[in-house]
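re: ur question from yesterday

yeah so i grabbed the chain u mentioned. its 501 aa long if i counted rite. heres the sequnce exactly as i have it in my notes:
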Amino acid sequence: MSEYLLLTGSTGLLGRYLIRDLLLGGHRLAVLARPSRRESAADRIEAIMQMWEAELGRLLPRPICLEGDICEEGLGLHASSRKWVADHCSKMLHSAASLAFHADDSGEPYRSNVGGTKNMLALCRETGIRDLHYVSTAYVCGLRGDAAREDELDVGQEFRNDYERTKLEAETLVRQADFLEQLTVYRPTVISGDSKTGYTNTYHGLYLYLRLMAILVPQQGLDADGRRYTPIRLPMTGDERRNVVPIDWVSEVITHLFQTPEAHGHTFNLAPEKCLTPRQIIDAGYKFFDSTGVQYVGDQVVDPGTFNRFESEFLSSIGMYDNYKATDPTFDCTNLKKFAGHFPCPVIDESMLHQYIRFGQEDRWGKRKAPKTHVDISMGEYLEAVSGGLFEDAMNRTTRITADAAPDELRVALDVSGAGGGQWSLDFQGKMLLRVEPGLPNTFDAQLCLTIADVRRILDESKDVAVNTVVQNRQTFGASRDDLPRAVASIFTNSNVKSVA
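ran it thru and got these structure tokens back, copy pasting raw so excuse formatting
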């Protein structure tokens, strides 16, 4: 069977961008996802796919969705799913992590960042994955005041919080995994929204400051000049460095490095060439809302007893970032410049910050209801019904066509793009479907590439379906249902299963 990349953290901000960019790069992808209280793992991934299709204006192939949880032994995968991973996945891209700064009652961030990494490594060892791509953070450097080099990790530094500490522990674990043949580490700095659209699905860091301004500043009435006066004394100079990078750039660079074999085995600090400053952030927000009144008081201690209402609400809300008031470290990016220097990091300027604010307002700062996904036909459910039980526990299918079987054997790679699509390997003998397995095979008699609309037209007995075909060996698929090989046509013409669609 063909090789798939296994991706964790697929529903997070970075994960959903990696899904998009890796699929656009032509990679075969399997993703680990947890169900939510309202949605299955597959439904969550389908929602992400439909979001990208709406933005890109094109259909995308569907990744193989494996339900699991990094915090569980074996990543929470069923035995059959672990066998599928062993058979199909040669590489892992581990991007799942908890962003919690301080330990809580649920055990985060230790549970995900350290425990999840241990579980991930155990699965890699069990399934034979020896090539690991690991997303760490540039802030494993902790409170270092000197330049943080890509070839350094633990130099005895102290940390601002549990998040930084757990990420260092996790990266140490992957570096100690002696069964790995190759390890590539990506260390992004603070990740912000999309540089073009402002999109984010998490409102930490930079977006917290923008959200507070968007909520608090407009509460102040306009003066005679049509401006707002919102006085606040900020305990900083305003010129401190902030290493912030847009999410689309981070994903683009990681995808490029993943696709560059010469880059593998190295560590990359994903930091901007030009840092953002608190002054730029605050001034952009105040300009957006036509307000004045900011004072940068540096090290001057402001008595909380003298706080005005605006200061009380704003400063108490950003208290979790108190340890990040000082200037950010400087990050060495030698490897990054060598292998991805032609992907310059977009500069986060005033116009981009305004775009972030506009997106946040439209998204109601994360409270906007996500559009409902629509699946006209679930090809997986259809194949399950048409296979008469063969699809049940398909990850662990043992029925195979033998090499000396009858000459009318046919192995088909079925790739259906669009909502409800997916990728499967179908084994036929005559018109009999012997085996269904998720994932495309490397060797096949023919590959059938359909959109979900093609499937609908075939099921509606239309004669004008345009089918993109890749021919191997002896079989060519024609342009309509009647021209399909009889074995494949049988899965679309069985009257007992048409109701499934």
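noticed a couple things. Confidence is low (pLDDT under 50) at residues 391-406, 462-482, 495-501. also The chain has 14 helices and 16 strands.
anyway ttyl
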